[in-house]
Specification:
Blueprint: H1 3-15, H2 18-25, H3 29-43, E1 48-51, E2 54-57, H4 59-83, E3 91-97, H5 99-116, E4 120-126, H6 129-138, E5 143-146, E6 155-170, E7 178-179, E8 188-191, H7 197-208, E9 214-218, H8 222-230, E10 236-239, H9 244-249, E11 252-257, E12 262-271, H10 278-296, E13 303-304
Parallel strand pairs: 3-4, 3-5, 7-11, 8-9
Antiparallel strand pairs: 1-2, 5-12, 6-10, 6-11, 6-12, 6-13
Helix pairs in contact: 1-2, 1-4, 5-10
InterPro entries: LysR_HTH_N, LysR_subst-bd, WH-like_DNA-bd_sf, WH_DNA-bd_sf
Keywords: Activator, DNA-binding, Transcription, Transcription regulation
Protein name: HTH-type transcriptional regulator GltC
Length: 315
């Protein structure tokens, strides 16, 4: 196989039709069909399933699709890096962030990147942590900031900070300024679903204390959790930075968790074993700088440098 064949295959899959792909590529359809036939013969398997509605990749075709994208992206980056060795770094850097982190990090990162690296384009995608982690392992993004280390041994991770979690109450609730987690035993709570990273931490914390959380409502949205708590459906546990505005406005109240408290870490992650462009290297360093600056200036509320004792402690 050669680069041209890989590009042709990607376009066929993208168009879902040999005819449309031939038009897009300005290649005669018989010639495009011959390229596809040669690829299938070389690999000894069918790559596409044909039907009246068009073509779809087989299991082998899906594998080739993923690898071809990675190969062509790496080739494009290599060409770009060589052409621009004597100039400012340029290219696209793809970043995946959970929504709560993106709300704090994206704007200062974009402003800093525009000032220092005007030829770099940032592509920032927001999603739940599980999706972001999968995209990083699959090579669909270049960098991520997540609240737990990846199980993928190929992923490099640096713990940048720990953020404090608090118990959240409606404004009219009688609540202590500080409390032990054990006091939440048998208290119906509004929490994220079991797939959410925060819920995994909460479940593990409660289990260590000998009980499981009592669920009043499950919902994977911090904004909706805050609304449900304010409406009296039950308390919750959220990062303090996520509720500072509501606490200041008096619509919600919080209890700090007794020492050593409950904290979770924010990790800057990048895939190992892949080519690193000058643009990626620059944005990796800049993203790290922005997060540490937010932490040290107090803009990432209730955060601290990583502690020797670890990122998750409870009482």
């Amino acid at each position: 196989m050669d680069i041209r064949q890989l590009r042709y295959f990607l376009e066929i899959v993208a168009q879902g039709s040999l005819t449309r792909a031939a038009e897009s590529l300005h290649v005669a359809q018989p010639a495009l069909s011959l390229h596809l036939k040669n690829m299938e013969e070389q690999l000894g398997t069918r790559l596409l399933t044909r039907s009246r509605s068009g073509v779809t990749p087989t299991e082998a075709g899906e594998l080739l699709l993923q690898r071809a994208r990675a190969i062509l992206e790496d080739l494009a980056r290599t060409e770009d890096d060589i052409r621009n060795l004597e100039t400012d770094p340029s290219g696209i850097v793809r970043i995946g962030l959970p929504g709560t982190i993106s709300a704090m990090v994206s704007l200062p990162l974009i402003l800093a990147a525009r000032e220092r690296f005007p030829r770099i384009t940032l592509n920032i995608t927001e999603a739940m942590s599980g999706f972001v982690g999968d995209w990083l392992s699959e090579g669909k993004i270049d960098l991520a900031v997540l609240y737990s280390r990846s199980k993928d041994a190929r992923i490099r991770s640096e713990l940048l900070l720990e953020e404090e979690l608090v118990v959240l109450w409606p404004a009219d609730a009688e609540r202590p300024l500080e409390m032990n987690m054990a006091a939440l035993d048998n208290v119906p709570m509004v929490l994220p679903s079991g797939a959410h990273g925060l819920r995994v931490l909460i479940d593990r914390t409660f289990q260590a204390l000998g009980f499981a959380p009592e669920i009043a409502m499950e919902i994977d949205s911090f904004n909706n959790i805050k609304r449900l708590v304010a409406a009296g459906f039950g308390p919750s546990i959220l990062p303090l930075y996520a509720v500072t505005e509501e606490v200041a406005a008096g619509s919600l109240r919080v209890s700090r968790i007794a020492a050593p408290g409950l904290w979770r870490g924010a990790h800057l992650m990048s895939p190992g074993g892949r080519p690193v462009t000058r643009a990626l290297e620059a944005v990796h360093a800049l993203l790290r700088e922005v997060i540490l600056d937010l932490r040290d200036k107090g803009a990432w509320a209730a955060s601290r440098p990583p502690q020797v004792s670890g990122t998750e402690t409870v009482s």
